[in-house]
Design brief:
It is built from 21 helices and 29 strands. By secondary structure, it is α/β, with parallel strands linked by helices. It folds into five domains: 61 residues, Phospho-2-dehydro-3-deoxyheptonate aldolase, domain 1 (Alpha-Beta Plaits), CATH 3.30.70; 246 residues, Alpha-Beta Barrel (TIM Barrel), CATH 3.20.20.70; 109 residues, D-Maltodextrin-Binding Protein, domain 2 (3-Layer(aba) Sandwich); 77 residues, D-Maltodextrin-Binding Protein, domain 2 (3-Layer(aba) Sandwich); 77 residues, 2-Layer Sandwich (Alpha-Beta Plaits). The strands form six sheets. Strands 7-8-9-10-11-12-13-14 form an eight-stranded parallel barrel, surrounded by six helices. Strands 15, 16, 17, 18, 19 and 25 form a six-stranded mixed β-sheet that branches. The radius of gyration is 27 Å and the shape is globular. The structure holds phosphoenolpyruvate and manganese (II) ion (MN). The site of manganese (II) ion (MN) has 5 residues, from loops.
Length: 625
């Protein structure tokens, strides 16, 4: 049950409630929700609801209607984010676990780990104790396999996931691995569940071959009830009458799980389909359906794999899949981050040498804006987002060493470039070190219970109004009030507390201010994306840089721009942006802003850069990322 406490409850009253629950054998979770203090408890400690409602300090008692309690979303309304080293499973970055079905040798594991890391995997998988259908099949290398996994973590820098098949393996698991997996065949091995509940390691809990979602969640409940809340659910296909695939992937489990529980859910399309060519389509669908991550089997020589070769992707296929989900993720509000682990260690290093201040990034506006979201999606929780009053303040604050990074929007797919930021990039001497694209979905946000029919006045940033023009045209009598940013609009509506007010803003701002979305997705064009760049003084990622931004002026001569473009054409360099911008104080003279698909700072590019320098009056590289 959930006990909602009164605002003015005294510590003594609260202690009394907790002790009644504890004595009655309940497991207790204290939750601070919407400014209210709440206690979640399993069981009823032998009393009825009326008894608790009459205890001093209790405002209300809500029974938990499901058989699972600790895993239920009622008990914990916010998503649980499971941390594995620098990797966070369940936030807005898609986590990809990849590797072979089984660890076969040190060389095999290292080869595959290096490949999957290069393509963007952040956790490495590989079985050492394999639960095989036939006793004559390869059973895994056992402890030797675990030692190899530990070496992979050491040499490649990926935390490792492996299956535990018996409580007898608990000690070696603790010694060698980062995440333990309970396999489909063991989902209802209750002694094993209790054991991993006490292990102190995050757990991947696969869905049983013929388990209902409720049975699966009850298994998770076993783990949580032993004190381990770090459970990642993994759907890997269930057994149906359909023989064309190894199992039937139940993608509908994703939204069901998201509603029922706070635990993250990842999808394993490899065991679900059993066939290599079916894996990528299902993985793409899983991301589109809202999965927090994927588990993919990859092998460099699948024909000779000791298990599950037929469903293992070749490393290059895995790379293509990663590129595809990189494109899909922003559509559903998430990101695939190719620099995930590099960034995390670079930020840790910065913190060591520069202290806390080195971990701050400025963004425009308040918490809950799209800029804030870009900041947290780019850095995760490694960097502290710092709200700023203007774009210039972001740059100034970096110049004064108060922040190390800045996150600024450069262009919107509908509204075009944000010229002020291009000007600031030229004025200050910072480098673009990364980019992130967000889909901008606007909602009409009001007070809880507000309705569109009662709205008379709408607050938003002018861009918000512009991007929702068609929706607003349907309500010509509404007064529009401009605010500094979209989050400020929601805040204004909350403060004025008038049901005739509403704001146009994103989901994050609505959640932050505990307001209600009264009309969903009201932007005129759903293909509404904003591209943000991250600025700093040094790159955070070691990976390949595939894009660069340049600014140059080409002089006021016939063919001057053409001469520069010819250099790109002759060198096979793809231009992805070309925009002209007036030079301040020089009427009718222009700067050209160019983005190319190349690493301008690489040695190979230097001759091209030299050729460009010869044909331009001014040239500046804004960054390669
Ligand atoms: C595995 O991940 O290697 C495995 C055996 O999976 P499942 O338990 O889902 O069959
Ligand atoms: Mn397998």
């Amino acid at each position: 049950m959930i006990l909602i406490l009164e605002d003015d409850i005294t510590p003594e009253q609260k202690n009394r409630i907790l002790s009644v629950l504890r004595q009655g054998g309940c497991i207790i979770r204290e939750i601070s929700e919407a400014g209210q203090c709440v206690i979640g408890a399993t069981g009823s400690a032998g009393h009825d609801i009326g008894y608790f409602e009459n205890l001093p300090g209790v405002a209300k008692v809500v029974p938990i209607s499901t058989s699972f309690k600790l895993v239920s979303r009622q008990m914990h309304p916010h998503n649980t984010v499971v941390k594995v080293g620098d990797v966070a499973v369940g936030d807005e970055r898609i986590v990809v676990v990849a590797g072979p079905c089984a660890v076969e040798s040190r060389e095999q594991a290292l080869t595959i780990a290096r490949a999957v890391r290069r393509y963007g995997a952040v956790l490495f998988r590989g079985g050492a104790f394999k639960p095989r259908t036939s006793p004559y099949s390869f059973q895994g290398l056992g402890e030797e396999g675990l030692k190899i996994l530990a070496q992979v973590r050491e040499e490649v820098g990926l935390p490792v996931v492996t299956e535990i098949t018996s409580p007898a393996q608990a000690d070696v698991m603790v010694k060698y691995v980062d995440v333990v997996q309970v396999g489909a065949r063991n989902m209802q091995n209750f002694e094993l569940l209790k054991c991993v509940g006490r292990l102190g390691k995050p757990v991947v809990l696969k869905r049983g071959l013929s388990a209902t979602i409720e049975e699966w969640l009850m298994s998770a409940e076993y783990i949580l009830s032993e004190g381990n809340d770090n459970v990642i659910l993994c759907e890997r296909g269930i057994r149906t009458f359909e023989p064309y695939t190894r199992n039937t992937l139940d993608l509908s489990a994703i939204p069901v799980i998201k509603a029922l529980t706070h635990l993250p859910v990842i999808i394993d399309p490899s065991h679900a389909t059993g066939m290599r060519e079916k894996v990528s389509p299902m993985a793409r669908a899983a991301v589109a359906a809202g999965a927090d991550g994927l588990m993919i089997e990859v092998h460099h020589d699948p024909d000779h794999a000791l298990s599950d070769g037929a469903q293992s992707l070749y490393p290059k296929q895995f790379g293509r899949l990663m590129r595809n989900i990189y494109v899909i993720a922003p559509v559903v509000g998430k990101q695939v981050d190719f620099g995930y682990l590099d960034k995390a260690s670079a930020v840790d290093h910065l913190k060591q040498v520069g202290g806390e201040g080195a971990r701050k990034a400025g963004f425009l506006g308040e918490m809950g804006t799209f800029s804030h979201k870009a900041c947290t999606q780019y850095f995760g929780d490694k960097v502290v987002p710092v709200p700023m009053g203007s774009f210039r303040e972001i740059f100034e604050s970096m110049s004064q060493g108060r922040t190390t990074f800045g996150v600024i929007p450069l262009e919107n797919s509908l509204a075009g470039s944000i010229h002020q930021n291009y000007d600031l990039l030229l004025e200050y001497d910072f480098t673009i070190i990364g980019e992130i694209t967000l889909r901008i979905i606007h909602h009409l946000v009001g007070l809880p219970g507000a309705r569109t029919e009662s709205v008379k006045r709408v607050f938003s940033h002018p861009q918000g109004f512009q991007q929702c023009r068609e929706f607003l045209n349907r309500h010509p009598d509404w007064d529009l009030v401009s605010t500094k940013d979209t989050a400020a609009a929601v805040k204004a509506v909350k403060e004025k507390a008038d049901p005739a007010d509403a704001a146009i803003a994103g989901k994050e701002a609505a959640e932050l201010y505990e307001m209600e979305i009264i009309e969903e997705g009201i932007e005129t064009n759903p293909r509404n994306f904003t591209r943000f760049v991250v600025i700093g003084t040094q790159p955070l990622e070691n990976g390949p840089r595939c894009k660069s931004s340049l600014v140059y002026s080409a002089g006021n001569r016939p063919g001057a721009l053409f001469e520069t473009l010819k250099i790109f054409a002759e060198n096979g360099i793809n231009l992805v942006k070309l925009e002209s911008r007036p030079i301040h104080g020089k009427p009718w003279e222009y700067m050209f802003y160019v983005d190319v698909e190349a690493d301008v700072e690489s040695d190979a590019f230097q001759p091209v850069l030299q050729a460009l320098e010869e044909k331009t009056d001014f040239l500046r590289v804004l960054g390669s990322y």
